[in-house]
Structure formats: C-alpha cells, structure tokens
Amino acid sequence: MLTEKECEVMNALSKDTLMEALGMRFVSTDDDVVVVKMPISKSTRQHMGIVHGGAYLALAETVAGAGSLHVAGLDAKVCGIEVSGNHVQMSPFEGYVTGFGSLISAGHTIHVWNVDVKDEEGNLLSTIRVVNRIEK
Q1: Strand partners, 71
Q2: Which of 2, 27, 59, 135 is a Cys-bridge partner for 77, taking CB atoms 3.0 to 4.6 Å apart?
Q3: Is 121 a catalytic residue?
Q4: Structural domain boundaries of the chain?
Q5: Would you tell me how many other CB atoms lie within 10 Å of the CB of residue 121?
Q6: Can you tell me the distance from the alpha carbon of 62 to that of 10, in angstroms, rounded to the nearest whole number?
Q7: Which residues, other chains included, contact 65 with Cβ-Cβ below 8 Å and sequence gap of 6+?
Q8: Cα separation of 5 and 3, whole Å?
Q9: Dihedral angle at the C-alpha atoms of 83, 86, 89, 92, nearest 10 degrees?
Q10: How far apart are CA 105 and CA 89, in angstroms?
Q11: From CA 14, how far away is CA 9, in angstroms rounded?
C-alpha cells in the first residue's frame, strides 16, 4: 500500500520519536496492506526476553496511522482513538516482528484497521484493531 516515497517520508518523520526508539521501519508494498517491521531488541522486550505486548500495540497504531495517512493524504491529522489487541503466541527472542495492516472501513472522519503482527516465519503473534480519527 505505501509507496517508496511515502515510506521515505514516514521513516524521516520517525526521527526522535517512539517509532525510532523501537526501531520501526516502513516497508513499501504493491498490495493493499501496510507493512512495518520492528526488531526484537532490548527496547521492545519485556523481562522474559519476548516482545512486550505494549510494543505490539505501538506497532499496530503506527501501521494504522501510516495507512490512514496514505488514504486521507499526508496533510491529514491522524490520531488513534481506540486500540484493542489479542496476543495469541509468544514472540521469538530475536529477529523481527512485522505488522500487516488491512483497512476495514474508511469514512471521512473515522478509519478502522486490523493489524496482524507476525514473526519471520509468518506465525501470528497478535491481532489488533485500531480506530483512527481523521481531520483535514
């Protein structure tokens, strides 16, 4: 969904933000899915060495926010107003996790997204619903 140019813009806007602190990177795709990768690192782990559930939620809100900007335009103001997730499997201890966002509904002021977080083997780790408010 995101073009190379949009990914460049999003990655540049991530400087000095939570997205940079957690190592998130936007990935360009030709399909209808927003893709963001996040490393499993000391910044994203909880005490047992697996990814912290809050890091999954931050990843999902980032994915959905980028998707809403793609749909509404980079000049829109996008704010997550609801995030709800189900963590279904523990993460690996190293590597990357990737958020895959699919648009469920795109109204003028509200977008609803489903974000699946998977490991490098494609195993579902978490499924998260994000609702964004859109203002022009």
Answers
A1: none
A2: 135
A3: no
A4: 4-135
A5: 7
A6: 10
A7: 78, 80, 130, 132
A8: 5
A9: 10
A10: 27
A11: 9
DSSP letter (8 states) at residue 108: S
- Which one of the listed residues 4, 8, 20, 61 is annotated catalytic? 61
Tokens (6 digits) for 46:
């909880």
The answer to whether residues 99 and 55 touch, using CB atoms and an 8 Å cutoff, is no
Helices (H), the chain: 4-13, 18-21, 53-72
pLDDT in tens, 58-86: 999 999 999 999 999 999 999 999 999 99
For 31-54, how does the pLDDT look when each residue is reduced to its tens digit (9 = 90+)?
Answer: 999 999 999 999 999 999 999 999
Fold of 4-135: Thiol Ester Dehydrase; Chain A (3.10.129)
Tokens of 2: 């995101």
Contact residues for 16 (Cβ-Cβ < 8 A; gap 6+): none
Is there a contact between 117 and 59 (Cβ–Cβ < 8 Å)? yes
Task: Choose among 97, 129, 86: nearest CA to 27.
Answer: 97
